[in-house]
Structures
1.
Amino acid sequence: MFIRLKGDICMNMILNFFLYFIMYSFLGWLMETIYASIIQRKFINRGFLIGPLTPIYGFGAILILLSSKWVENVFEDYYISSIMTVVISTLLVTILEFFAGFILEKVFNIKCWDYSNNSFNFKGYICLKFSLLWGILAFLLTQVVHPRIASIIYSIPTSVKGYMSVLSLFYLIVDAYRSITGALDLRNTTINYSDLPIGEYRNMIIKYKRILQALPHLLILNEGVLNRYVRSIFNGRINKIKVQIKNRFQT
């Protein structure tokens, strides 16, 4: 009986954290989408995935929540605990952002963001400005947002949370597969541009217009050479670009 009860508690905790991940992935997508849509004055579906989820926010939120629990157990004073939570969360999420950017570049040969023009950046993956922003978000998450989200999740029956988690996981896997396939196809298209007719090349790039709009700093890396923004195709300069790139490789 005790073992079964302990197992139920463990399963409930896992379901809670998975739903936290989904919820904060959605809230992160919503925040970035609203910001980008206001700036560009049109709807922009931000994020690597096709659907309304930005997993780096979900993973970041989980890191913040776990670190805040650890800090609370170490520091009894509320103010010291709050400060240390922000500091440790900032470091952890900054590390997460660095490895996410690094892996995306190595696996897909693309850079989804580039902080090279920001002060105090490291290889363009992270910079002081956005690390501090992560700290602010960590404070708001632990002090304002999460208590309300947690109360909602806790009120849901475990069986319902199980169904929600299964459906969410299935959706996430399908979306991730489609998004990764699209990113690889886009990468292969840009790498093999010289073998494609101009019309077909243009159509392939436009096919992935969502990715280019969602990631405004997307850069395609071709054999170690930084080509240029593929989005230039939308400005009617495709012929000129192809000639320039082809001549560059021939010289």
Note: Helices lie at 2-40, 55-74, 78-108, 128-154, 158-191, 198-207, 209-214, 238-250.
2.
Amino acid sequence: MHRKVLLCMNQKMKFVSRLAAVCSGAAVASVGMAMTVFAEGETASSGTATQQASPAAQLLTSIIPFAIALVLLYLLLLRPQQKREKQAQQMRENVRVGDEVCTAGGLVGIVIRVTEDTVVLETGGERSKIRVKKWAIHENITQMEEAAQKEKERKAARRGGIATAAAESDDKKKKDSDE
């Protein structure tokens, strides 16, 4: 699962870098075009004078692509990363005695004691005890299994509710047609 997240983040970073390159290219083109129009003062094809854009409008046309790139960078990379960090911190805060957890180093164990910033894990057949920092906890396997079970029950209830609603509507239609 961790690899999938890394692959997804890698794809998003490639997309954002391409998008930033396109936006910066558009900004350079718009600045060059604005400078050309400003310098010439008239178009070569028609020979008539064009209205010169105000300096504020020129500045705005050169800044807009950069602003759009920054907003997209925030929305595609920074905001989801902050959300994942917040969920990970919440998961670490909710570790209870008896939970099965996996550390960032790959150790899997059962929590036997929780302190403010450390957790004592019991691992292996010899019941080895290891004390690790809370920040090193990568996932809470017990919470993930409970969430998966709740999701499965919710889907089953939904399917059952749809089937029940369909059967009730069929019965109602049958009664209406008999009358």
Note: The domain at 96-179 is CATH 2.30.30 (SH3 type barrels.).
3.
Amino acid sequence: MLLAERKFMKELDGMILNASESQLKKFQELDLITQLEGSNFYDVFSKHGKKSVLNVPSIKKKNRK
């Protein structure tokens, strides 16, 4: 792992540890989405940037018929 990747992960971990309750909810939603898609949380976050990721729309439950 590159030094830049380690720094990014440490910065993101710090953001999560110091996040407000509403921000934590957004992080949790993003984590769930990435798990369902089989993608990496850190990769998705690095591609979309801090502001856009924290504006992820809430997950809506699909109606099952």
Note: Residues 18-57 form one domain.
4.
Amino acid sequence: MKPAFLLFCLWGGVPEKNSMMMLSSINNCIYFRDYLTKQSVSMKDNDGKISVKKYECICKLINVNKDVRLW
């Protein structure tokens, strides 16, 4: 086992598909977390109301197998 930093993103409170990235450095994880968390998207509902959904990302320390590739 080896340590890795998991970057996990939510889009409007819902986990985004393929939103997990395993990184070898906490500095890289924090960089991507801060960059992605600033983004938002405006969408229209079926009623015509405009809602703004934002990315929220977190970094978490996890253990992975030695053969897992880290970015």
Note: Strands lie at 2-11, 14-23, 40-44, 50-64.
